[in-house]
Backbone:
């Protein structure tokens, strides 16, 4: 009678409960799990935990479960460090994104050891937190914008590259950086005066910002007549295309520049992409983009050059100018 | 009593070696979570009392502590402590982003709990292996406060011994100094020293040391 009551209580819980024995066989699988995995208790009871969840064997879940069973140590898995280890869905028949999970793994029993896994759905809290995070970033970007051009300032760039650099490593996605320099800008200032120079920078910044393809791509004023753009989750070949768009957008402004060889305002761009093997910190990404920009300057300006270390093809590919 | 409190250099070195193996495991676990090299080491270790440990950490400094209670062979509490400022850095590096605020949010505290859990389990596992006894541990609890509040949240009048480890934590060229305190009752302290002596004897006789 008591056992029946306990099992009913487990079934009624609004969290996932799995108990595995010392041989990692599943001995309890509650109703909440049936709802969110789409697998009935009858399917999983007696099964090896790691054959039901093969991805978790070398995951921290597997390590923590082994520690609980063989060393009697409890573990907590936070959702910030492991978003969704278990394949759990709001409705497993129409799987959308996995539920955000907070997991605890606790040893049970003394002579015969069991592991108790509790999974709590924290999707709502995570959504609230990510909203807060987004708002904080919007506020930050507003307070850290460049007074003249309205794009992010140098300090905001430092904040963003730090964040995106880490995200790219964590998610194993590439991060591209464009460094942009307005060609012969000192001569422009000398010829037209600083007020006109400011106006020129504003127009160039607006044109380039409008040429960025995605809302996640960010443009910053790096200093003086230098700009830079951060392109998260973008491979170098695509970044070179974006750089070319930016270059073309400034060219098509056709701002007169009597002291430049082509007679109009133009920009040179250096492209570098994050490559886990060749770069260890983001300083090197900036350096690589800077080297590429230097090359672009020496190749005659109004041109795009990509960093050799990140994109070897750039050695042989034709120049991107017209 | 004096003898109980002081360790010979050889004993301290041996314990340090044992704990360095433990935190090495913890660092590897964290590396695999963040996909980045995390290094941890224990550069110093000593036995002191709870009140002295609190005094040394200083009353003015705000700390964050992650603690786990253990029962079984010994009743002990293990507490991992960082300056509160450093905890912001750790979360920023481990989680990847941080909402700028004066204190850690709920999710961020939980991330710190997990980091503490990994380090404490690695160290307690090492100790349990040495004692060849099992301990039964609680889930981690997060606290922020002065060293006194972290080390003695129950305002207990007793002044037990504390095995104090300094833990150096390095991630992305950042160096963070933390402390791990094991609050030990007399029998646990005696046993610990006895086990260290046995460990040294085993080493001297050429037998392989116990790791986790």
Residues:
């Amino acid at each position: 009678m008591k056992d029946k009551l306990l099992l009913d209580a487990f079934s009624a819980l609004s969290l996932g409960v799995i108990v595995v024995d010392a041989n990692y066989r599943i001995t309890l699988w509650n109703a909440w799990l049936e709802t969110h995995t789409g697998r009935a208790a009858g399917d999983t009871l007696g099964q090896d935990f790691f054959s039901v969840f093969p991805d978790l064997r070398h995951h921290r879940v597997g390590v923590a479960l082994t520690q609980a069973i063989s060393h009697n140590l409890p573990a907590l898995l936070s959702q910030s460090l492991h978003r969704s280890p278990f394949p759990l869905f709001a409705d497993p028949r129409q799987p959308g994104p996995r539920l955000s999970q907070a997991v605890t793994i606790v040893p049970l029993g003394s002579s015969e050891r069991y592991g108790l896994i509790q999974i709590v759905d924290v999707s709502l809290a995570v959504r609230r937190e990510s909203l807060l995070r987004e708002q904080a970033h919007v506020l930050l970007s507003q307070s850290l914008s460049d007074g003249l051009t309205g794009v992010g300032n140098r300090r905001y760039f430092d904040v963003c590259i730090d964040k995106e650099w880490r995200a790219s490593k964590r998610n194993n996605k590439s991060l591209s950086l464009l460094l942009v320099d307005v060609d012969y800008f000192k001569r422009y200032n000398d010829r037209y005066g600083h007020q006109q120079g400011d106006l020129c920078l504003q127009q160039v910044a607006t044109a380039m910002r409008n040429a960025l393809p995605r809302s996640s791509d960010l443009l910053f004023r790096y200093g003086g007549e230098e700009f830079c753009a951060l392109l998260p989750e973008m491979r170098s070949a695509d970044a070179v295309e974006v750089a070319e768009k930016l270059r073309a957008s400034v060219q098509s402004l056709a701002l007169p520049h009597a002291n430049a060889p082509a007679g109009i305002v133009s920009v040179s761009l250096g492209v570098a992409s994050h490559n886990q093997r060749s770069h260890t910190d983001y300083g090197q990404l900036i350096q690589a983009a800077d080297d590429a920009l230097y090359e672009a300057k020496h190749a005659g300006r109004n041109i795009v050059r990509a960093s050799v270390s990140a994109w070897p093809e750039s050695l042989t590919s034709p120049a991107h100018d017209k | 009593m004096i003898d109980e409190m002081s360790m010979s250099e050889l004993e301290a070195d041996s314990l340090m070696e044992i704990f360095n193996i433990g935190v090495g495991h913890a660092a590897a676990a964290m590396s695999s979570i963040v996909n980045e090299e995390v290094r941890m080491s224990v550069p110093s270790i000593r036995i002191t009392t709870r009140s002295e440990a609190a005094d040394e950490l200083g009353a003015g400094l705000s700390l964050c502590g992650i603690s786990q209670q253990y029962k079984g062979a010994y009743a002990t509490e293990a507490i991992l402590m960082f300056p509160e400022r450093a905890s912001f850095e750790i979360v920023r590096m481990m989680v990847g982003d941080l909402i700028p605020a004066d204190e850690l949010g709920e999710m961020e505290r939980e991330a710190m709990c997990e980091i503490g859990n990994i380090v404490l389990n690695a160290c307690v596992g090492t100790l349990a292996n040495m004692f060849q006894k099992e301990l039964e541990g609680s889930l981690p609890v997060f606290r922020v406060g002065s060293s006194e509040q972290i080390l003695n949240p129950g305002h207990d009048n007793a002044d037990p011994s504390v095995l104090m480890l300094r833990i150096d934590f390095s991630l992305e060229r950042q160096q963070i100094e933390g402390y791990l305190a094991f609050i030990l009752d007399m029998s646990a302290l005696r046993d610990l020293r006895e086990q260290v002596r046995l460990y040294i004897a085993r080493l001297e006789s050429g037998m392989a040391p116990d790791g986790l």
Observations:
- The two ends of chain A are 84 Å apart (CA to CA).
